Amino acid sequence: MFVDPPFGGNLMYSELNFLTEGWLGVRTNSKPEAIENKSQTKSLDAYRKLMTGCFEEAFRVLKPGRWMTVEFSNSQAAVWNAIQTALQEAGFVVANVSALDKKQGSFNAVNNKTSVKQDLVISAYKPNGGLEDRFARTGGSEDSVWDFVRTHLQYLPSVKVRNGELEFISERDPRIIFDRMVAWFFRHNVQVPMSTQEFQAGLSQRFIERDGMVFLPDQVTEYDKKRMQVAIAPQMEMFVSDERSAIDWLTDFLKRRPSTYQEVSPEFMGQLGAGWKKHEAKPELSALLEDNFLKYDGTGEVPSQIHSYLSTNHKDLRGLEKNSPALVAKAKDRWYVPDPNKAQDLEKKREKSLLKEFDLYRAFTGRRLKEFRLEALRAGFRTAWGNKDYQTIIDIAAKVPESALQEDEKLLTLYDLALTRTEDGI
């Protein structure tokens, strides 16, 4: 199925008919029209609900395992999230997002400098009946997690080439796969049975990783053949816009280069540019490091991650034992990414801290929160969802600026599902 729907308030299609309708003496019934329009009192929330209804009908008529392609053309993150949330709420799973150069620009693209020049194409699938049936039998078990991942990976492209170069397939990023899995469990009203760190550890044990992407065994053969034909590995683009993406950036940086605070600070500060989200509180680098990473204090053997980096990049440190004084001195005070077991302990500690901050938002008596931590809101929403406390999600959402809610896919998904469950009386 191919769909090219209206996108937010780009064009008021029914209103373009006024002149013709006046001549013919008829009027378009614009009530079910899926647009964002102040004069019709259709907010972004209303637009998302109308699009969900459209996608639900598409989901109904498609056979299991079949596809829907949606064209998207809008520069607003909130509209993009509305489309993605509507797709997930209808039951679809997003498998790929690609740029589409139509050569001929639309009216808005030609005449409006801020309009996007290339459209996006979203490929989403209706999960096959086997996955649904197995999930119904096993519920929210760990087996259900890996069953979903295996099925999902089958739908993802193995290779993407653009202008003769390999592209990074973002949907194969372990963090994106985790988000898709969580959305799947949320939609089925089942609690996610593992943490992010447990998921990442299990992913590395069960599947194959190449250039930061996850593959099934038969898929990686195709990727490896193509990879041998190019000189440069595909690079993941990462933009630091909030606390979560800041942690992700630090994780990638420290994996490649375990560093002292003095070394990582200028690199990190250079990432905190104009793209930072408006209402998101900017965290201190020291706090991010303390809460999410480990620092070698010079006691005991040098951790393998630091040892590997130093012996590779410093000729005078090659071949030394992990307890060598020269190696220890160079490794001291360097931050590094913890192994999965220690990472789980850090994550539990961090989650407790985030929920404590969420309680402050819950107790807030003002009209709107001006600044907050998105990670605290996400943790609180997840916990409330797990406790089936949908009203807390709705109440806190009312305290958050609408733009902040609409522009965060994770918050928007849980808020939308909480509204649906409340309206259905679940």
Task: Kindly describe this structure.
The chain has helices spanning 18-24, 44-61, 77-90, 107-111, 129-138, 142-155, 174-187, 196-206, 217-227, 243-256, 261-269, 285-292, 304-313, 325-331, 340-363, 374-386, 390-399, 402-406, 409-424; strands spanning 2-3, 67-72, 93-100, 119-125, 161-162, 165-166, 208-210, 213-215, 294-295, 335-336. It is α+β, with helices and mostly antiparallel strands and 426 residues long. The protein folds into three domains: 1-126, Rossmann fold; 128-235, no CATH class; 353-426, no CATH class. The chain has a four-stranded mixed β-sheet with strand order 1-2-4-3, with helices on one face. The protein has a two-stranded antiparallel ribbon with strand order 5-6. Strands 7-8 form a two-stranded antiparallel ribbon. The longest helix is centred in the C-terminal third of the chain and has 24 residues, at 340-363. The protein is globular, with a radius of gyration of 24 Å. The two termini are 32 Å apart.
Summed up:
The protein has 426 residues and is of the alpha+beta class. The chain is 52% helix and 9% strand.
Q: How much is the average pLDDT? A: 86
Which CATH top level class of the largest domain fits?
Alpha Beta
Tally the structural domains: 3
Q: Give a count of the beta strands, DSSP E runs of length 2 or more.
A: 10
